[in-house]
């Protein structure tokens, strides 16, 4: 099957400047214009822009905590109803099936679930496998489990830590490693209520910094393409910018990805002791090429916060709206908290909104800043179209600002920042850069040989509308969306690394689980056939 | 050996599928009762969606109570693994289903290696039903009072632990208070069978109180592991737990409206698809609806219009099921592989035999 997209403005920063050219798809891949071969299918995309399919590097789309959130809020998520206003996730489909469709309609073709607890990996992959159309991936959580902490406490070799990390990544079929408030979940079980970078985990005597640095080094040594994905300490509290600054400084020449930086962009100035430190953090990011970040933009309305940072979520119980929560002390890296929350256009909400936009606009390099709302923590992913508009139009920001708390905005630089993202920068931030960050060489661009993940948007003044309803979307060459509607179901794959497991580590894991849990290792691992879809995984290479 | 029947007559599987598909296609309101593994559940929910039917679990009543705990108030929980490894103080709440007794006995035979190291202490809070056999086996210290229901006992205990006056007092509260002071991670173990909804909510209030200054948590052991697995599966597939219907093609959750047994009693349903691939049970007698029975049976189900024999996950074929041993799903390998089809494969064949012959997404 040869498909030709004719007459579109192709925005493909990896392969050159924006230009009007045809895009050719053959058997699921992008190809150079064939000589002497006619297309079986031609789509006139004049008046449209053509980009690679978008990639979301941090969106909580599946797994134990996401499902618990569904359980906690059955009356309100209304994912499948005709969008009643002001209910949690009322504008985000909340089943796996809706998730895939809604992402595809916006031109997203790959999405990463950033928090897979290793012991619930099968659950996560069962959910991911039921998300249609798009490819998925998951990051395995490490850094709060007894095994890691014991290795560090006991001064075991870095090679042993590497073997363990490789075993976890391989057995859970992860694409990378995430650490969440390193050590805090373990400390919370010992009744510690706050935890900073240089605090130590009781019983282990290991600092959060030591955990982060050890895992960062291990991920690098193993050649895992995606740098350690760090959810830092002190999320969401006034003064958290200091923690973020310390974490950025702790990179020390080794790559590190800081998740949802917006939630750390807070200082302690002003009458309410809650101010923006976005400009300072942006400067630090600009000055440190080893750091990449995603934003976790706040958009207004009802949502539910879902995080494995159980200490933080426990402290947020009082802010729950509606007043019900689930707090789970999980095994090792599992667990977390589900706290529904409504972002209001008051002082605090306005400041959070502005901090996210400041970070987007003040960090210069679109290759190191990633487009996320930390779905659903800052906002459901279905708010992306409006966020694109805010980034691309200072007028849109000004208009929204008039509705918000002027005192809060006065403590930010947002009003003075007139930068507007170009389509090329959007293509970098949402396509080329995420592919590079995750080590996905086969996507994020429109060069020959890439998989044919293509999003076509009809140009128009209404930026949000343009990105909400893609004119055409191809996934692996299959036309899946037309005029913003899903036209064809297909099943994507979960992208995974497959580092070879060390035999001694497997033996050690068997002994550990039998001794500590009284169960064989089989209880905690699973064969690929358990997913019951044909070829549910696709392997991504580690760096050599 | 026959594997398919129309009425009581053995037929080929294909004939049974065709006949069942006709019944499904002509039904105005088909309802599904589920009792199968994750993949059987996925396929049955997908078929219910296709037919605009409704689904419930065989253990729908107790499952609804367990779901209500989460959806009404939430709570603080931990996993069985973490409780085993960390907690030296276990408080059993009411009756714990027999299916979990081995798990708790295994905890009793081990010592926590994290948190509370050393010997484990057991308590048992009970209502009028009195001390359970399990509690006696575990030498649990009884917390209760005559004529107090479980929710009453929990309320009194909660008040006493908070230093508030209560009209009655429980036995051994002082002993529990001392144990709580010693323990770094006390855990309350309960199930949906432990008590009614107010009891479970009161228990979570008690746990929340303890977490104001210290740590405590609860382990939820479902009344039925497979039912809980079906609830989790349903949640990701539709956004809702069982007792969900698709009357307007969109899923809606309503534990009263979509109570399948009620729908049958009230003659709202005209076709009942009974899926029992675990306990191999036959549909309850007395209903007047047409029944399609998918069960691990060797004989036709009495009163069923169509019966199809299916295999058991973990016995006849591989599967995935929820287990309280790990507090999540685990893969189960077939212990005696057979040619009996899985629920999933039969449901897919049924979908394929419906008008339009569209494949299911699961």
Structure report:
The complex is a heterodimer of chains A (544) and B (362). Chain A has 544 residues and is of the alpha/beta class. Chain A has one domain: TIM Barrel, CATH 3.20.20.140. Chain A is 31% helix and 21% strand. In chain A, the strands form six sheets. In chain A, strands 8, 9, 10, 11, 14, 15, 18, 22, 27 and 28 form a ten-stranded parallel sheet that branches. Chain A has a seven-stranded mixed sheet with strand order 3-2-7-23-24-25-26, covered by helices on one side. In chain A, helix 8 packs parallel to helix 9 and helix 12 crosses helix 13. The longest helix of chain A has 16 residues. About 3% of the residues of chain A have low confidence. Chain B has 362 residues and is α/β, with parallel strands linked by helices. Chain B has two domains: 185 residues, 3-Layer(aba) Sandwich (Rossmann fold), CATH 3.40.50.740; 154 residues, Dimethylsulfoxide Reductase, domain 2 (3-Layer(aba) Sandwich). Chain B is built from twelve helices and 17 strands. In chain B, the strands form three sheets. A nine-stranded mixed sheet of chain B has the order 2-1-15-14-13-3-4-11-12. Chain B has a five-stranded parallel sheet with strand order 8-7-6-9-10. In chain B, helix 2 packs parallel to helix 12 and helix 7 packs parallel to helix 9. Chain B is elongated, with a radius of gyration of 23 Å. The mean pLDDT of chain B is 94.
